[in-house]
Amino acid sequence: MGLGGMGRRVNGILVLILILGAVLRFKGVTNPYLDDQGWRQADTASMALNMLGHLGDFPDVLFPMLNYDGAGPQPVELEFPFFPYLLAWTWTLFGWQDLWGRLWGICFSLLTIGGTYQFGRLALSERAGLWAAAFYAFLPLTTYYGRVVMPEPVAQAFSIWALAAIVSWRNNPTRMQLWGASILMAGAVLAKLPQLMIFPVALLLGFYPLQKKIGKLGLYSFLSLVLPMLYYSWVHFGAGEASQFVSGILSHQVMEGSGGYGEILYKNLKSGLGLPLLLALMGLALMIQKKALKNEGYLALLLWAGISSVYLVVICLRIPLDYYLIPIALPIVLLAGYTLDVWGGDREGNGVPAFVVGIVLIGLLWVNQTLYYGSKYQWNEELLTQAQWLRQHTEADSVLVLSGPPPMTLYYSQRYGYRLIRDDSQAWEDLQKIPGDYLVALPDSRGEDFWEQVESAYSQVGPGVYQLNGK
C-alpha cells in the first residue's frame, strides 16, 4: 500500500520522521562549538555572550557584537540575532552550557521538518509532503547543520513556514492569515539575508494569477520587507568599517571570487544531498511534462529550482563551504517528494515500488552521513584547553592576541582580543603595535621563524600562551 492510502496513520508517520530526525541530530549534542564551522558557531554564541545582562536594553541589545578585532565587543553587520537572543535568555535562566545552543538548533530543525510536510501537503500532496519531510530529516547536510549554533536552522524554519503560510492564505484569504504570512517572510529574510531568494516564490504561490490581488500583493510585500530593510540599514551604517557579512562576504568572496570551486561543489552536493538531488531533477522533468503553468504549486517549485540554480553558480561556485548549500535543500527534498508521489501512481497498489525506492534512498542517506560526515563532528581539544587556562589564570579584562584568524578561543576564554591575519613578517610587526596582554598560539598557525622570534622576546606562561606586556 502506498503512503497516500495510509489515512489516519499519516500523523503517526510524521511523528516517527520527527523522532528519527531528532535522534540523528543528537549526535555530538554535547560537543563544544569547535567542530566543523566552529568559527560561525562561536560567532553566534559570542553574540549571545555579549547580550548577557542587557537583554532588556532595546534596541541596542539586538545589534550584533563579536569578541574579536578589538579590546571590547565589536559591532558587526550580521543577520538579525534571533538565535543569540534566545540563547542568552536560556543561559540567564539555566547557566552557560554549550548544550543549550545545540538543543535550540535541533528545535528549529524539527520545526523545518514539520513545515516541509505542511508545505508539501498544501502545495503538492500529503504523500509528497511526507516524503519531503523524510528526506529533509535524513539528508547528511541538513542533519549536521540541524544541530549547529548558526543562523541556518532558524532561517530554514522561518522560510518553509513562510511559504506554507502564504499557501494557507491563498486557500483562506483572511487579513490575519496575510499578516501572519508576511511576518514569517520578514523573519526568514531577517534570519539570513539570502533567504530573499524565496520571496518571488512566495509571490507566485500567493498571487498568481494577479487578477484583483494587486492591493494585497502590495500590502504583503511591504509588510514582508520593511522590517528587514530597516534592520539591515541600521546594522550597515552602525557597523561602519567593522562590517563582517552583508557587504563583506558579498563584495570580497562573491563579487571578486574566481568561481573555481567546481570540484569542491560537486563533492559537497554528492556527500551532503546525495541521490535525492537526482530525484529532484526527475521531478522537474515531470512537472514540465504535466504543464506546470496550470498549477501555481508546480510553477512555484520550478521558479524556486531556477533561483537555486542561479544561487549555485553565483554563490556556491565561489565560496567552498558546504553550509551555503542549505538554502537549496528545501526545493530539492520537495521535488524529490513530488517524484516519488507521482511515481507511486494511483491508490490501487502502484505506490509500492516508489515506497521501496524511497526507503532504500533514506537508508543510503544514513549510510552516507555515517561514512562521509563523521569528520565534521571532530574538534581540537587543544583549543579548549588553552581557553580554559586563559579564563582561569588571566585577568578578566585581559586582551588576547590570537596567532591566526579562528576566533573560537576568545569565546571560550570569555575575553576580547585581536587576530593576526597577515603573513608572518607582517604579523610580527602587527604584534608590536596591538595593545594585547597575551599572545595565544593557535594550532597549525605561523612558521618556525615567527615562533623563534616570539620565544626570544616573550615568556611562555601557559599552554601556548605568551605574556606580552609583563603584566
From TrEMBL:
GO biological-process terms attached to the record: lipopolysaccharide biosynthetic process
Transmembrane helix listed as a keyword: yes
Cellular component aspect of the GO annotation: plasma membrane
GO MF annotation terms: pentosyltransferase activity
Membrane topology classification: Multi-pass membrane protein
Top-level taxon in the UniProt lineage: Bacteria
Localisation: Cell membrane
Transmembrane segments: 99-117, 129-147, 181-205, 217-235, 273-292, 298-317, 324-340, 352-373
Pfam families, alphabetized: PMT_2
Keywords per UniProt: Cell membrane, Glycosyltransferase, Membrane, Transferase, Transmembrane, Transmembrane helix
Keyword check for Cell membrane: yes
Domain Glycosyltransferase RgtA/B/C/D-like: 81-232
Protein name as annotated: Dolichyl-phosphate-mannose-protein mannosyltransferase
Organism field: Desulfitobacterium chlororespirans DSM 11544
Record lineage: Bacteria, Bacillati, Bacillota, Clostridia, Eubacteriales
